[in-house]
């Protein structure tokens, strides 16, 4: 509703992992290079980890976009709460490999034949598993066994495991040491620095159609970093609600006071204030679900205030 008011063509802070909005920091470039190198060099097993909300899925979507342009056969598993049979069925279906039998041995034999066909055609195949920290140990062991599908010199299937930092702890379990030893490359996503956060916000506004006008006051940008600690997902949520608040109040620019008000709605603590605040990385899931609903309710009430009239030039 605020797009026309701020001269934007699209929502710049949509929380969906749109690869068009991928912000390339040094860490992001290194992670993307690691993933593409692992696939092109047939390294077999690559690990991508990072804290919640630091852009892992956006990075993977960018990788998937590149794989499609290269016409690389790809299976992307985004629901990791499966047993072994469900996992194999989903993988085969996403690769588009038909198999008449439900027998595990026959499924693996058909997969091996298909991978050999791809290899002889000069192609590779990529399996990407998101939210891998939720995989059961027996499924992780099955994933490890898939790396045994190989020739004398090269791996036939390239596997990328993507997960939160808990995945690294999980892989340290003694019963998963064989899988851990198979990991040939590791990549990580990181929170943004203060300067990267400012550039991240400006880039998203530019991609969304901003003509360069100042939408966020410099002090507002500083406040956003203080409240979000550079976690992109939280930056998107707080910026989105700041734009809505500025629109409701008919403010041409988001000020630090607007950021403060939105942060209070989300119960985000300022690291530099005397107010009690939760640790910056504590329970992001709770922030996303509970506090977001509270903030949306507050904004809905403001939009419905009968005494407030929005000037015609600011109408939706």
How many helices in DSSP terms? 12
How many structurally independent domains? 2
Structural classification: alpha/beta
CATH class of the largest domain: Alpha Beta
**Kindly, what is the distance between the CA atoms of the first and last residues, rounded to a whole number of angstroms?**
5 Å
Q: What is the H/E order?
A: HEHEHHEHEHHEHHHHH
- Level of helix content? 40-55%
Low-pLDDT regions: 272-316
- Rounded to an integer, what's the Rg over CA atoms? 23 Å
Strand fraction equals 5-15%
In total, how many beta strands?
5
CATH fold-type name of the largest domain: Rossmann fold
Named CATH architecture of the largest domain: 3-Layer(aba) Sandwich
Kindly report the spatial arrangement of strands forming the biggest sheet. Answer: 2-3-4-1-5
Q: State the CATH superfamily name of the largest domain.
A: P-loop containing nucleotide triphosphate hydrolases
Biggest β-sheet: count, sense, barrel?
5 strands, parallel
